Structure to design on (477 residues):
RNA sequence: CGAUGCGUGGCUCAGUUUGGUAGAGCGCUACGUUCGGGACGUAGAGGUCGCAGGUUCAAAUCCUGUCGCAUCGACCA
């Protein structure tokens, strides 16, 4: 909403998007910085969003047969070394434990940057027969990657995530699970976070260290930059061969398993901020709003006002996440506070309303104020929350459509990235040299080769050789 | 790892050029008046000036070193 800027403390996004982001994160009290660079305190308002994400995503996992497990946070160096591409990919950013107490360790331990190697080490003993397959495990945990540049939620040195790791008897089963989980992710973003995504495959250059194929969901932020929001990898039997994960199949021959892994992180909270937020602060989709409705009493010291507010809360909390702001701030303060924190709905109730048997509901997403009779509030709140959830997705989708362009020549391509921000669809010959050149010239990377391919031209946008794939290109976080 | 900026009450910062009793606003506490878009009055609490050396009668201020954080680049969820 809010063309009018109500909160001076938040830098406007047009002026400085990075600063706006930081201001929102701080003002909505999602995090605090700590004395360790890149490690943040996730405060109650932020962690509650993560809990709602966790719960709803976990339910969707379980529907597909996923079981949760927990593996250690330390990986012996020798274990990490086993898969060559994998260790090369992660070595530059792992943190090492070298001492136990005062004694140096015989073998240093890395703090998991991801747990493929641990799962492999576990699976090699756990899997003997085709009857043991598939294994469809997931863990919720934190991982550590020693990033040079850090930003709250988008890139921190320690972050929370889930990592699914599966093992299958056949390549087909592994591929099917890889795609299945990508679809779970895509639906989750659209239905719960109200963020539309492009589904597709990463190029060789951009794929995960050790994977045969990496699939991704890419979302477009308000500033036109892309955010990789979830990935699903098919490992083929590469890890199985490196770790010796074999099973006896029905035909009594020894075979290697085929594996997958897939993950989403607290980065999603960054995506919510950058897709839905506005110049008054955070705007939360109702399904992940820890408080869906904040009741603001007006003249709360007047007899009966607070009682009425509590009464409304007690009725509404059976169906919704509701709170009463009964602090002794002024109403104006509370309105601004509710906006910064992104509560989808605000309910105003004062002596005049009580007398008239009504109250005022205010939508965070578009600022609209609606008078509602008190006996219709419950139905109206439910209806409005659904409408808000739906319209937030529609707005985000419209924004993405408006910021998705097409180019068939390098001149068009460069011109688009020099004058606009967003996704550019263009054809590609599948030669990495073109990707490298585009990155060097424009700091633009291939985001994905979408499943929904179009034939925009027969020629690669960069070199003019015959094109093989349409690619989404963009500047990325 | 490169560039830039910043470390002074909870927060934002002034004070450093030119050394001389640690400041302001906000926030916090108490009481009172207020209340439909960040109200006001009165009284009060709160700081080893990031850390370590050095120069000096005297250091937030000058010198040396060091640590940390933020932002921007290269690398990555």
């Amino acid at each position: 909403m809010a063309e009018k800027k109500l909160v001076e403390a938040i830098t406007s996004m047009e002026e400085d998007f990075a600063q706006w982001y930081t201001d929102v994160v701080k003002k909505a009290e999602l995090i605090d910085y700590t004395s360790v660079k890149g490690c943040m305190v996730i405060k109650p308002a932020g962690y509650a969003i993560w809990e709602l994400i966790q719960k709803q995503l976990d339910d969707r996992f379980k529907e597909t047969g996923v079981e949760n497990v927990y593996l250690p946070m330390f990986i012996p160096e020798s274990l990490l070394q086993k898969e060559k591409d994998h260790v090369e990919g992660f070595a530059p950013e792992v943190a090492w434990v070298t001492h136990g107490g005062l004694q140096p360790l015989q073998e240093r331990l890395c703090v998991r940057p991801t747990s493929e190697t641990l799962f492999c080490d576990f699976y090699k003993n756990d899997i003997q027969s085709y009857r043991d397959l598939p294994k469809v495990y997931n863990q919720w945990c934190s991982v550590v990657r020693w990033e040079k540049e850090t930003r709250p939620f988008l890139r921190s040195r320690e972050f929370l995530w889930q990592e699914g790791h599966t093992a299958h008897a056949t390549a087909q089963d592994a591929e099917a699970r890889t795609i299945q989980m990508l679809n779970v992710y895509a639906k989750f973003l659209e239905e719960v976070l109200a963020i539309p995504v492009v589904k597709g495959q990463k190029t060789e250059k951009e794929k995960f260290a050790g994977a045969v194929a990496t699939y991704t969901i890419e979302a477009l932020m308000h500033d036109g930059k892309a955010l990789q929001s979830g990935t699903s990898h098919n490992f083929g039997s590469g890890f199985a061969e490196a770790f010796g994960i074999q099973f006896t199949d029905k035909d009594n021959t020894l075979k290697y398993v085929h594996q997958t892994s897939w993950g989403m992180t607290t980065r999603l909270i960054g995506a919510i901020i950058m897709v839905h937020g506005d110049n008054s602060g955070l705007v939360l989709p109702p399904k992940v709003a820890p408080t869906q409705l904040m009741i603001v009493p007006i003249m709360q010291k007047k007899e009966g006002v607070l009682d009425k507010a509590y009464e409304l809360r007690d009725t509404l909390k059976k169906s919704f996440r509701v709170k009463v702001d009964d602090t002794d701030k002024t109403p104006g303060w509370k309105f601004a506070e509710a906006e910064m924190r992104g509560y989808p709905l605000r309910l105003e109730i004062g002596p005049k309303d009580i007398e008239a048997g009504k109250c005022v509901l205010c939508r965070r997403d578009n600022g609209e104020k609606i008078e509602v009779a008190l006996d219709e509030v419950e139905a109206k709140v439910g209806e409005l929350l659904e409408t808000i959830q739906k319209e937030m997705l529609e707005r985000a989708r419209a924004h993405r459509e408006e910021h998705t362009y097409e180019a068939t020549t390098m001149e068009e391509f460069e011109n688009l990235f020099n004058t606009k921000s967003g996704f550019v669809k263009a054809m590609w010959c599948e030669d990495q040299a073109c990707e490298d050149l585009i990155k060097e010239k424009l700091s633009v990377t291939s985001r994905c080769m979408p499943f929904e391919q179009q034939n925009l031209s027969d020629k690669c946008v960069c070199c003019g050789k015959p094109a093989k794939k349409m690619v989404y290109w963009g500047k990325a976080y």
In short: The radius of gyration of chain A is 25 Å. Residues 377-402 of chain A form the longest helix (26 residues). Residues 293-384 of chain A form a domain with the Rossmann fold fold (CATH 3.40.50.800). DSSP finds 14 helices and 23 strands in chain A.
